[in-house]
Amino acid sequence: MVDKELVFKALDESLVVISTEVANILLSYRQISDSSLESAGVLIGERRGAHIVLKDLSEPSRWDIRSRFMVDRVSLHHQKAVDDAFKKSDGEWQYLGEWHTHPEDVPKPSMMDCTSWHKSLKSELPLILIIVGRTHFWVGRKIKDNIEVLKLV
Ligand SMILES: [Zn+2]
After folding, report:
1. What is the CA(88)–ligand 1 centre distance, in A?
2. For residue 70, what pLDDT band results from cuts at 50, 70 and 90?
3. In sequence order, what are the residues at sequence separation of 6 or more whose Cβ sits closer than 8 angstroms to the Cβ of residue 95?
4. Which of 5, 13, 21, 38 is catalytic?
5. Is the per-residue pLDDT at 117 higher than 50?
6. Domains, the chain, ranges and CATH?
7. How far from each other are the two terminal CA atoms of the chain, in whole angstroms?
């Protein structure tokens, strides 16, 4: 558990802030035991100029196909979470990227992660990618075809 927001910084000094609430929900999905499954969802929040504040997320549901090393998001509830947040916030909160877990302490994107991010995430605006490891978060920012790893401040 964390008691304050987590701040990550890009080389151009822009920030990605993970709210305390979002950070703690992500931490709750860490693959601590050998039997825990890989989880995934979408990230939701606000763009403030060059900065991004993550305020909400979608969580795995029983409709997702989950296994330890693979997550296949088949459920529409992830899209619904984005739509609900957009309405609730008068259009302020929007889809900002994706998160998933890895069964390793310090996570790194797999080849499959990179391939699928480049293939399926198309956006002119920056998107945030988070991998939740057992002891660390990996946070990346995708701008067009380039993914930059951000540093914890
Ligand atoms: Zn992965």
Report:
1. 30
2. very low
3. 42, 43, 44, 82
4. 38
5. yes
6. 6-152 (3.40.140.10)
7. 18
